[in-house]
Amino acid sequence: MQLLDGKLLSQQIKQEIATQVTEIRSNGQKIPHLVAILVGTAGRSETYVASKMKSCEEVGMKSTLIRFDDSVTEAELLAKVEEVNQNPDMDGLIVQLPLPAHISADKVMETIHPSKDVDGFHPINIGRMAKGLPAYVSATPQGILEMLKRYEIETAGKHCVVVGRSQIVGLPMSILMQRNDYPGNCTVTLTHSRTKNLAEITRTADILIAALGKPEFITAEMVKEGAVVIDVGLEKVPDASKKSGFALKGDVKFDEVAPKAGFITPVPGGVGLMTICSLMQNTVKAARREVY
Ligand code: NAP
């Protein structure tokens, strides 16, 4: 078994981005600028946004955090998105999900201009990605592709099973793994909560991508010997042995699956760190107008 080390890769990628930003700076060009909008303080959104902002700082990029209370109206939020769309100094915009129930996340995503949509959630970016046109690709799937590429994992002709069909992970992941490119050219099965005999399907996976948000759901008996196992899940579970009182768990029961897997991502230290790198790579592309 070989560990797919997101910590190591993300350090390498951050170093590469820092070098690019230094070049941009020394050429007198505009420093890439990522803007994040955060609504409320609930859940883990605050921690996620903080680590995105910190990573930008580490690589020398500019970042701005715009905060709203939970009581913000949809109209106020959309007006702020429009303001960022119009601001030529701001290259990339992310609105941290989830949003309060009175705000339509779809409406917000559709209001972000596709050229600033570095999270790759706008329907135009999803459509362009599906057609194989230049697009911002959703950050987590892009991070997984980068990981497969850097570990030179063979994908052509393999059976890739994706568990979970969310708009931000499972669905784009399934599209990317079937495209005629590397990584890609897999035969893909996309599964979800209505899938029957899930274990029978996952056992046939050469590449198994778990993105369902159910801690330790994927057990050893669901995995084929030698499979590449990518664990996207990231959930807090109570753990009295930890000072914080909780542990972060993935969707895969790591201790029993790891000995059986060919390659596997740990949680934490796997996919999550790659996601932040994708976001910064997309912001550099946005500043350089490489996609639009
Ligand atoms: P989501 O929107 O809640 O989607 C979960 C998907 O899993 C749904 O399609 C659901 O099916 C499916 N599912 C649920 N229970 C299932 C079961 N028993 N068998 C098969 N499929 C099942 O989740 P998400 O936003 O994609 O996130 C998934 C996990 O990844 C979460 O733990 C999240 O925290 C994590 N995540 C991590 C990163 C990162 O950077 N590391 C980024 C994004 C998300 P239905 O469609 O039928 O309901």
CATH architecture of the largest domain: 3-Layer(aba) Sandwich
Distance between the termini: 41 Å
For the biggest sheet, the summary is:
6 strands, parallel
Q: Tell me, what is the CATH class of the largest domain?
A: Alpha Beta
Widest sheet: strand order? Answer: 1-11-8-7-5-6
Basic shape: globular
Mean pLDDT: 97
What features would you highlight for this structure?
alpha/beta, Rossmann fold, 292 residues, 6-stranded parallel sheet, globular, 3-stranded parallel sheet, 10 helices
Write a brief structural summary:
The protein has helices at 6-26, 45-58, 74-86, 105-111, 123-131, 139-150, 170-178, 198-202, 254-257, 271-287, and strands spanning 2-3, 33-39, 62-68, 92-95, 159-163, 187-191, 207-210, 228-231, 235-238, 246-249, 263-264. The chain is α/β, with parallel strands linked by helices and 292 residues long.
